[in-house]
Amino acid sequence: MTKRTDAVVTRRRALLAGAAAAGFLGLFTRGNAIELRGMPAWDPLSGPPPDIVKPGPWQFFTAEEGTAVEALVDRLIPPDPKWAGGKDAGCAVYIDRQLAGPFGRSAGLYMRPPFDEQATDRGPQSPFTPAQRYRRSLADLDEHCKGAFAGKSFAQIPDAEKDKLLSGLESGAVTLKHNTGRGFFELLLQNTKEGFFADPAYGGNRDMVGWRMIGFPGARYDYRDWIERHNETYPRPPVAISGAPQWTPRQG
Amino acid sequence: MARKLPATDVVIVGLGWTGSILAHELTEAGLNVVAIERGPWRDTSSDFPVTYAQDELRYHIRHELFLRPAQETLTFRHNARQTALPMRTWGTFMPPNGVGGGGVHWNAETWRFLESDFVLKSHLTDRYGAKFLPDDMTIQDWGVTYADLEPHYDQFEYLCGTSGYAGNLAGQKRQGGNPYEGPRSREYPTPPQKQPYGPTLWAKAAVESGFQPFPQPSGNLSQAYTNPLGVTLGPCTYCGYCEWFGCGNYSKASPQTTILPTLLPKENFKAHTLCTVQRINTDGTGKRATGVTYIDSNGEEWEQPADLVLLCAFQLFNVHLLLLSGIGTPYDPNTGEGVIGRNYSYQVTSAVDAFFEDQNFNPFIASGAIGMCIDDFNGDNFDHGSLGFVGGGYIGAVQTNGRPILGTRAPSGTPSWGAEWKKAVAEHYLSTYTTVTHGSCYSYKDCFLDLDPTYTDAYGRKLLRMTFDFHDNEMKMSQYLTDRLADITQKMGPKVMEKHPRTAPYNVNVYQTTHTCGGAVMGDDPKTSAVNRYLQSWDVPNLFVFGATAFPQNAGYNPTNTVGALAFWGAKAIREQYLKNPGPLVQA
Ligand SMILES: Cc1cc2nc3c(=O)[nH]c(=O)nc-3n(C[C@H](O)[C@H](O)[C@H](O)COP(=O)(O)OP(=O)(O)OC[C@H]3O[C@@H](n4cnc5c(N)ncnc54)[C@H](O)[C@@H]3O)c2cc1C
Ligand code: SF4
Fold first, then answer.
1. Do A79 and A203 share a structural domain?
2. Predicted confidence (pLDDT) at residue A244 exceeds the cutoff of 90
3. Are A104 and A152 found together in one domain?
């Protein structure tokens, strides 16, 4: 059999084609159907790298929502003398950028009716996207706080009251207007932890605080020199997809 | 109207593990082969470069490499009295999508099944009597034996370069390997991976308890290796981003790193990506497949005529396509008749969390398949007479990752947020060790797959419907295995230890394994099997079905070595028997 090294279509070209046509049913974001004949030429780094989150104004939250979420994440992961809390770690920025992106609109998920929201034992069945759930629950939370704390918003009440309210949402003792208390708490907690531990590329885990706190070296890829060094502390500091703090000039 | 393409000798649905193996084998036999793959083309170097492959959020939490449920999903219910609801996002298992299939993002734990697993029904009834098995259990023999498959296990392992140490070389037991495995014709292609601290400590505890621990067979290679096709893999760097991720090092066995570089350049092979097969077409008699119809990413419909159709679309989608195409009789749980969708099974895993003081396990130094295990409680390696259940699994210390979003642990009783949570995860991350069991799941009358009456996919086709729950037998097994695991783990000296046996009802929100099995099982009798011992459809002899679809029930191991061996076994039957005389290879 003769060998051919030419590919009919290389990936980069396929990607360009994909940019022009969104694809049938909006399902295919990574290019069109191609015929593979021969090994596609090696196209270095032609796969899509992650979009690095840039600092700047909220992309999804309103100013009030942003303030509330910063206060919420800072109680879920409170600051301590050694390690930043959720707010300084950028968890709210992370959640904002996630809600403005594909996650916020449930992209790729099965969203066809009918929805049986009462069923709890056959996987999540909510017809609402995360963006819709945050918008509605934050409004409900605000209304709840203003009613319960003489017109104050969540960010304005004392930490002890904030924690009491969060515990109530977690246990189900406190429900919000659209009956969203516990479900929203779980979503928020999951997203906050993601923001604390995901690569800083996504806007949270600032200065790799989450990783330094637990002793995780991050996006390293080669531990051959350490695999048989048992019960010894790994000595190198973490690195992230976008590098390490000492490699990047600080902004502001 | 579908546009008709020129006919080809063979059309393959899905270019994952089995599709790549079959494409290789049949192009070698000189046939023209067209593969049709639902997902995109993927290449190790460009899609998973080590500059950003290590991204827990993107690949694990957001499911980057997997099928989008919006395109195709399934519905689920625990029993026939419930209404099945769609899996709107993935949880318990992760359906693959794209060239390489599950081979891209598997762990590469590469086990053989036991000799007795292939003759399970006769073995258990011989040893314990027919009354020992629950009434509604529908296990059966496979129609092939370990001896039939041994050369093909060997083929798959040598394709992959699997790292391990033989415990049974041609009948000779060897210290340091698995004493329970069936005889191997030769040593593993590469030596075992090096072990980090946790598995080493656990293995020591296992020896002290009188067991013979051995390294888990791994498709993350201990050293560079060139396979019989001339494709070279590199050594694994223990990066800890393996399961759910593509390997950036060419060190995880996958179609990309073992077969595709020699398959794709062949003149008699081509593949279409981002094309979803809608159905298998049959002629007026219903006894002959004429090819497949697929829809490409622009929504255009195409018909690919072929003399031979190979279904290699992963277990769930193989069954879905058979049901949608009206091939074979759908299973009816009320009468027990029919075979398509019958004997769906899964895997029963469990864990023990051990919290230590003054130990550092460096959980991030890991590979998908590294670890130390024992096999004393697998299959029928131990006497079940007084235990009240059948089945078992391997147990051990398997260190797959220390990724922090999902990998931080704190002893139960710790709040799930706040200052105490923060302090606890900081304290326990390096010093917590989780050990695991990987148990069998036998088949039952009321566990099956059919078409959903309500929900449809993006193409308007009825979704596959799964009716499944864990049975008492498996829950007793999981409790027993978890207790035995805990006995050994306790000897590692943890301060606190927590057992997490699997419990019913089946929770579809929590990832367990992607070891879905059955639904078009193999066997000797067309009344209880959809394909014969060569994976050939009883109803449509020019259709073969590959993958874990063929497992009559699942054993206490990961499936892919057996899936790969069955692919080589079926390919051999096609090359040596079917092509000479196309028609049924076994008379019903
Ligand atoms: C996270 C994860 C970890 C795993 N770890 C292990 C492990 O450690 N050990 C082990 O033994 N197994 C493991 N597995 C299982 C392993 O991946 C599968 O057993 C194996 O890939 C099955 O091979 P297959 O050829 O049947 O299917 P696949 O390799 O999945 O290939 C099927 C292909 O068919 C395509 N397809 C499906 N439907 C259509 C259609 N209608 N039209 C066109 N194409 C279609 C799919 O896109 C896919 O590419 C793991 C799986 C996952 C998801
Ligand atoms: S653990 Fe090894 S085989 Fe797995 S992705 Fe990392 S380097 Fe590759």
1. yes
2. no
3. yes
Claim to verify: residue A186 and residue A88 sit in the same structural domain? yes
Cα–Cα distance measured from residue B437 to residue B557, given in angstroms and rounded to the nearest whole number: 10
Q: What is the ipTM of this complex?
A: 0.96
Question: Does residue A159 lie in a domain region?
Answer: yes
Residue A245 lies in a domain: no
Is B78 noted as a catalytic residue in this protein? no
What residues contact B229, with CB distance under 8 A and at least 6 apart? B24, B159, B258, B259, B262
Find where tokens 């015929």 sit. Answer: A35
Kindly state whether A160 is in contact with chain B, defined as any CB-CB distance less than 8 angstroms: no
- Chain B residues touching A14 at Cβ < 8 A: 41
Same domain, yes or no: A191 and A75: yes
Number of domains in chain A: 2
Residue A31 structural domain: 1-49
A56 in a structural domain: no
The pTM (predicted TM-score) of the whole model is: 0.96
In a domain, A236, yes or no: no
CA B567 – CA B571 distance, rounded (Å): 6
CB contact under 8 A, B405 and A194: yes
Strand partners, B350: B437
CA of B40 to the centre of ligand 2 (A): 22
Q: What top-level class would CATH report for the domain B3-77+95-127+138-165+202-215+236-578?
A: alpha beta
pLDDT at A17 over 70: no
How far does Cα A7 stand from its chain's mean position? 37
What tokens appear for B132 in the block? 């020992």
A-B Cβ pairs (cutoff 8 Å, strict): 261
- Optimal mutation site among A214, A233, A239, interface B, most CBs of chain B within 10 A: A214
Integer Cα distance of B497 and A91 in angstroms? 32
Using 50 as the pLDDT threshold, list the residues of chain B that sit under it: none
Residues from chain A that touch B68, judged by Cβ atoms under 8 A, are 27, 108-109
Q: Tens digit of pLDDT for each residue in B332-370?
A: 999 999 999 999 999 999 999 999 999 999 999 999 999
